[in-house]
Amino acid sequence: MQRDRIDFGSMDIPVLFRKIFFPTLLGMVCMACITIADGIFVGRGVGSDALAAVNIVAPLFMVTTGVGLLFGVGASVVASVHLSQGRVKAANINITQALLVSLLLMAMSMTLIFIFNKQTAYLLGSSGQLLPLVLEYMDWIVPFFIFSMLANIGMFIIRLDGSPKFAMLCNVVPALLNVVLDYVFVFPMQMGLMGAALATALAQVAGGVMVLGYLLGYSKTLRLYKLKMSIKSLLLTCRNTGYMVRLGASAMLGELAIACMMLVGNYAFIRVLHEDGVAAYSVACYCLPIVFMIANAIAQSAQPIISYNYGTGDAARVHTTFRLSLKTAFVSGLLAFAVMYVLCPYIVAMFLEPGCRAYEIATGGIPYFAAGFVCFALNIVWIGYYQSIELARKAMFFMTLRGIVGMTACFLILPPLLGEKGLWLAVPCAELLIFILLTADYQLRHKVRHAVR
């Protein structure tokens, strides 16, 4: 397998960042396309109620991805520091522990969802009308979440091993497979919502198998390590896992923030605008992962550079990378907003039949929703920077404040004040508030540092 020549410690920062970013970006966008393809084929091939049902289940996708990011970010940061200090064995032990513990947690979670499937559906905001569709989709998709989680963790390991292009392929191949299978199962085979779920499930299997194949046969430095089963080894695994969880917790909270946005939004929209409102809101939720994946690609591309040079004590390279990532996030968020604002009717028409009530609600509200894309991208990258320099508590604090506290508060406060427009402005307002707080915290931190000097 051809390797990418990457030197985190001496290569020119913009060149190094681009070398990692573009393959990561393409892979991330293709991952988002898995979800978007489902939405398009379900909305146009099955109906608006089916689209609403998928959006009800969507928070489970976010939680699964969050578990992958939790262990992926944590293991990547720890392994980066170990590699910068020449401790390859310790890095391999860390990534193996991350994979094994996450697999066990995911298996337990999937079992609970199956046992309490109806209760889970209602907890996610399903109405009685949507319940049969929600259960149909959930029962087919949940068993394969473990492969999605494996792929999410594997992306970090493969990039750190020096193969960002292969990491990209682990996303591109499943995305293309999902689009093809979605079309075949939903239209020619008329399998309905079950077909859309099965297409996504098989795509997730493909991504997980590719990651596993790389780690078992093609990795250069990072590979799976046989762990001992002694009491001392188990205690060491618990200690290392706890540290990785602390480092990666804010990354998981990033996904939980989107899950919270979907969950609270589903409740708010179904209360005010009923099932058509949830279908309209689902279009915004399908578009947001593109922006999230772009911001996440920026954060993940900067992360190994920042973590490696943080480990070697090169503060200049750390801050150069951080500034470059913020500029990239600002431009990306601005472009995403412009595209959504100008092309909103055409984008909504890919999911919903023009003229239906859900279509009218979506085209009227999504431009307001898109106003938050710039701050959304900046916040993801900024919190990723705190993760990369091992400020886990600070990253977790801001992610919790942003994704759960601020988002929930805005959904509770703005709709009674502004009506339907308040539903769409809740997310942008929450992102703006957190961006202001992050900026103030960063300025204060640097003033204190200069005062100490």
TrEMBL record:
The keyword Cytoplasm does not apply. It comes from Parabacteroides acidifaciens. The lineage of its organism: Bacteria, Pseudomonadati, Bacteroidota, Bacteroidia, Bacteroidales. This is MATE family efflux transporter. InterPro entries: MATE_fam (IPR002528), MATE_MepA-like (IPR045070), MATE_MepA_subfamily (IPR051327). It is found in: Cell membrane. The chain crosses the membrane at residues 20-41, 61-83, 95-117, 137-159, 166-187, 193-216, 253-273, 279-299, 329-352, 364-385, 397-417, 423-444. Pfam families: MatE (PF01554). One of its GO terms (cellular component) is plasma membrane.
